[in-house]
Amino acid sequence: MIIAIDGPAGVGKSTVAKLLAARLGYLYLDTGALYRAVAWKTLQSRVAPTDHGLVTTLLASTSIHMQFHNGAMQVMVDGVDITDELRTPEVTAAASTVSAIPAVREWLLPIQRQIGQRGSVVAEGRDIGTKVFPAAPYKFFLEADPAVRVARRHRELVAAGRGETVETTFRDLSDRDRRDRTRSIDPLVPATDARFIDTSALSPDQVVEQMVAAVSTGL
Questions:
Q1: Which of 148, 162, 204, 217 is the most exposed place for a label (fewest CB within 10 A)?
Q2: What is the greatest pairwise CA distance in the chain?
Q3: Residue 66: predicted pLDDT
C-alpha cells in the first residue's frame, strides 16, 4: 500500500504525512530528504549546485540510503548519518537547485521506489503521484492560500532559530514555487486522479482525518 502526498512548500505535507504514517503504522518517506542529501554532498565536495555537469559526475561516487528506526527516518550518505544536517539554510537552498537537474531526479528515482517496496508507505514530495509512484492507489494534492503558506514557513524558520523576515520568506517561497512548477522535467502538478485538500483553514489532524476517511472508504 502506497499513499502519495504532493504539494508545494508550506501546505503541511511533512507534518500530515508523519501523522498519517503513525496513525496507519506505515513507513514515512520524505523524498525531499533525498534531494537534500545530494545537495549536502555537493556542498561537502565544493561543487556548485548550479553546475549540472559536475553534480551529475558526483553521483557516480555517491551512495544514499534511508534507514528506519521506530518509524523515524535516517539518511545515510556514503555510510554517514547526515539526518541532522539536512535542514540547514545552505542545504535547503542547494536542494532547491539540484532538484531541477534531470540527472539527479532520474538517479534518485530507483532509490525512492526501492523504499516503496519495503512495505506500506506514506510518501510525500512534489512528484510522488505523477512520477515516483504513479500507480499508488491513494493520491492527495495539498494546497493552501499563499499568505497561509508564508506564515507557516516563517514560523518554522523562527522556531529553527533563523531570524528571517516575512518578506524574505515570501520571496524564497515564490522562487521555489516558480522553479518547482516550471522545471522541464517532473514539474509540480497534481496527478489526474489525486484528491485535492485545501489545508488553509484545517489543522494537521483534520487533514489526516480526511485522508483516513478516503482510504477507509476506498475513495
A1: 217
A2: 50
A3: 87
